[in-house]
Design goal:
By secondary structure, the chain is of the alpha/beta class. It has three domains: 6-187, 3-Layer(aba) Sandwich (Rossmann fold), CATH 3.40.50.180; 208-255, no CATH class; 260-326. The protein has helices at residues 15-24, 48-55, 105-116, 133-141, 158-166, 175-187, 200-209, 213-217, 258-296, 300-326, and strands at residues 6-11, 33-38, 60-62, 74-76, 82-86, 89-93, 120-124, 145-149, 171-173, 224-229, 236-242, 245-250, 255-257. The strands form three sheets. It has a seven-stranded parallel beta sheet with strand order 3-4-2-1-7-8-9, with helices on both faces. The chain has a four-stranded antiparallel beta sheet with strand order 10-11-12-13. Helix 3 packs across helix 7 (200-209), helix 4 (133-141) runs parallel beside helix 5 (158-166) and helix 9 runs antiparallel to helix 10 (300-326).
């Protein structure tokens, strides 16, 4: 009988340390394949497979497209590439970003749940924002097991907390207790897997993550159109509601959790304000220069007009600068010796 032999792991900030601690607890003969997504910048080289190979007994490599899945191996998503699972093989694709990340956690979890259902154990570790929550919810909906690191033991607890807000986890554990549970589950038999686990929307979202042209061009998108625009491409966002979880996906495949969309909108707004500030300051400087040239030619009325316009631009720039400065969170530095390290 099949077991919980597909382990998918997602992490972000603080994730390298967390995954290292996790793999240290695996035996060399683990009868399961482990798939790991940790958020990395697209331009950053990743040596995570080497780190994990040294940290524990299982060999770790970057996942390769078309590679046959084998137990006792750790497959790590490479920077700027989504990692998805199909029947017995790995797909590595440069599809649209999800939660502004590539690789993202949700595509891995969603595709694993769609193919392997109850054989999947999904694990959410340290990180920020909400990537992984939608994927873990899909794992649960397809009869898989949901494991979440206890936020109190996470370097960055926001991602585990977000997952726990929307997913009824089977296990909420300190980091040191997760590996023994995964090993035990890898030996526990599960019910026979149906050949029709994935819903139609699951299949559409998996295809969107792979930038499948037929799916991109199909007008029938998952969810319903919203009033919001995609921060990445400007297209209409479709609203998807799963249980209490609200998320969004656009025509080209970019996907956002609700908090991820708020964060992206805040970034876009800040960028627009900085651009407006730069434009106003450049306008004021040019107006001042034109006023000086006019006065040198004794065109005093023209010079006054330029100076008035410069003052207006400077006043507007001051307002925008105040908005930008006041919107920044206040940072409090504790006196040395008063910090509480865990």
């Amino acid at each position: 009988m099949p077991t919980h032999d597909i382990i998918v792991v997602g992490a972000s900030a603080g994730g390298v340390e967390a995954v290292m601690a996790l793999v240290q607890g695996f035996p060399a003969d683990l009868p399961a394949a482990v798939f790991v997504v940790v958020h990395f910048p697209a331009s950053s080289p990743s040596v995570l497979p080497q780190i994990l190979s040294r940290a524990g007994p299982l060999p770790a490599t970057h996942a390769r497209h078309g590679e046959v899945i084998q137990p006792g191996r750790i497959y790590v998503a490479a920077p700027d590439l989504h990692l998805q699972l199909h029947h017995d093989v790995i797909h590595v694709v440069r599809g649209p970003r999800e939660n502004r990340c590539r690789p993202a956690i949700d595509p891995l979890f969603r595709s694993a749940a769609a193919v392997y259902g109850p054989r999947v154990t999904g694990v959410i570790l340290s990180g920020t924002l909400g990537d992984g929550t939608a994927g873990l919810l899909t794992v649960k909906q397809r009869s898989g097991v949901a494991v979440v690191q206890d936020p109190a033991s996470a370097l960055f607890p926001e991602m585990p907390r977000n997952a726990l807000e929307y997913v009824q986890a089977d296990y909420v554990l300190p980091l040191a207790e997760i590996a023994p549970v995964l090993v035990r589950l890898a030996y526990e038999p599960v019910a026979e897997v149906s050949t029709e686990i994935a819903s139609n929307d699951d299949r559409k979202e998996i295809a969107l993550a792979e930038a499948d042209m037929a799916t991109l061009e199909n007008q029938e998108k998952p969810g319903v159109p919203s009033v919001f625009g995609c921060p990445d491409c400007g297209g209409t966002l479709w609203e998807l509601q799963e249980a209490e979880l609200l998320r969004f996906r656009c025509r080209t495949g970019h996907a956002f959790s609700a908090d991820g969309l708020l964060s992206a909108q805040a970034e876009a707004l800040e960028a627009a304000l900085w651009a407006a500030l730069r434009g106003l300051e450049e306008t004021a400087a040019l107006e001042r220069r034109m006023a000086e040239r006019a006065r040198n030619r004794t065109l005093n009325r023209v010079a006054e007009n330029f100076e008035q316009r410069a003052r207006t631009a400077e006043q507007q720039a001051a307002i925008i600068r105040k908005v930008l400065v006041d919107s920044k969170p206040k940072v409090t530095v504790e006196p040395e010796g008063n910090s509480n390290h865990q």
